[in-house]
């Protein structure tokens, strides 16, 4: 919805745009004091703004579980997606990472999960005409330190990776300044990040992508096998917070997940059993995810000039297998 469609004075609309408030849902989740601080408006002006925003939200009710299952996202910016910056991957993702829902990226160690997440942290900063959202990213680390060297390498390679973008535009973007990093060593600090820090960054328009790396680490370390009931309860609380942030701020949410071995016994009970991998945390988590991406490292390599790299495959699954 365009701000001009609301019954507000041009002065209030101009103040809202200067504050970089992207949607009415951002407005209604802020207090009057926060809105006054962000916009510089008087209390009476803020009350008018909140009334108009609340009226608009009633015209656009929250998403339901059935609508999510059908792939219907009745948000203000319905169908919004974040481009990866690669035509092949964007085609696989039907245009990019969807806003307002949780996308899971799983794979074994070394498959390239973090590399893809970092690329999305850069892609989100491009303007809309180049597939971005013209904003930053919040990167939440739950186990390892943030891969700053890999990020710097990706930034240096942007001119060759994004040949569709004018070099002058790439050089004008200060990528590192727009990636906000949080380290959460336990579930308590993760909850604080999602309930306080993330909403503030999103409401101010500083970020438009939320990355959690990784979702399984804390739940695996803090719970034993017989604590599955409490673990599932905490998983639902965590996923609800992510859903709420994604929907309220029309934001793509990417969760990197570990994998676990699944053993399949051969027909001969005395024979060897084969193994494969599947995303960790089981059905309790799987039911909260709208799109699942599975990244695998292959044995083949590709060579260009004096450089070679290992091939990888990315498979997309969702409500229905693709």
TrEMBL record:
Keyword field contains Nucleus: yes
One Pfam family hit: Rad51
Residues passing through the membrane, by range: none
Major subcellular site: nucleus
Ranges where the RecA family profile domain occurs: 78-259
PROSITE patterns, alphabetized: RECA_2 (PS50162)
GO biological process assignments: double-strand break repair via synthesis-dependent strand annealing; resolution of mitotic recombination intermediates; t-circle formation; telomere maintenance via recombination
One GO cellular component term: replication fork
UniProt keywords, alphabetically: ATP-binding, Cytoplasm, DNA damage, DNA recombination, DNA repair, DNA-binding, Nucleotide-binding, Nucleus
Subcellular location(s) of the protein: Nucleus; Cytoplasm
Molecular function in Gene Ontology: ATP binding; ATP-dependent DNA damage sensor activity; four-way junction DNA binding
Family: Belongs to the RecA family. RAD51 subfamily.
PANTHER family: DNA REPAIR PROTEIN XRCC3
Function in brief: Involved in the homologous recombination repair (HRR) pathway of double-stranded DNA, thought to repair chromosomal fragmentation, translocations and deletions.
Official protein name in the record: DNA repair protein
Name of the gene encoding the protein in the UniProt record: XRCC3
């Amino acid at each position: 919805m365009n701000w001009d469609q609301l019954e507000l004075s041009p002065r209030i609309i101009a103040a809202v745009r200067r504050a970089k408030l992207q949607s009415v849902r951002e407005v209604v989740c802020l207090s009057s004091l926060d809105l006054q601080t962000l916009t510089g408006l008087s209390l009476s002006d803020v009350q008018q703004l909140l009334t108009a925003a609340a009226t608009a939200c009633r015209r656009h009710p929250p998403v339901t579980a059935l609508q999510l299952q059908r792939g219907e996202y009745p948000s203000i910016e319905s169908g919004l997606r974040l481009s990866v910056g690669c035509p092949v991957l964007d085609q696989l993702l039907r245009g990019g990472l969807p806003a307002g829902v949780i996308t899971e990226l799983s794979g074994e160690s070394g498959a390239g999960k973090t590399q893809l997440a970092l690329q999305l942290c850069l892609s989100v900063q491009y303007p809309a005409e180049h597939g971005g959202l013209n904003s930053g990213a919040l990167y939440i680390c739950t186990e390892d330190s943030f891969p700053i060297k890999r990020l710097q390498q990706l930034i240096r390679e942007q001119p060759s990776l994004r040949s569709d973008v004018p070099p002058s535009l790439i050089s004008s973007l200060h990528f590192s300044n727009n990636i906000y990093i949080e380290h959460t060593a336990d579930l308590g600090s993760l909850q604080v990040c999602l309930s306080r820090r993330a909403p503030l960054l999103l409401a101010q328009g500083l970020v438009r992508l939320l990355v959690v790396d990784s979702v399984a680490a804390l739940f695996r370390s803090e719970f034993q096998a017989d604590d599955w009931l409490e673990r599932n309860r905490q998983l639902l609380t965590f996923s609800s917070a992510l859903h709420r942030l994604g929907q309220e701020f029309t934001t793509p949410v990417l969760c990197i997940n570990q994998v676990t071995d699944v053993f399949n016994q051969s027909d001969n009970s005395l024979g060897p059993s084969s193994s494969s991998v599947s995303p960790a945390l089981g059905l309790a988590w799987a039911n909260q995810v709208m799109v699942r991406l599975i990244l695998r490292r292959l044995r083949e390599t590709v060579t260009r000039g004096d450089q070679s790299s290992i091939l990888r495959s990315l498979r997309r699954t969702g409500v229905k297998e693709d």
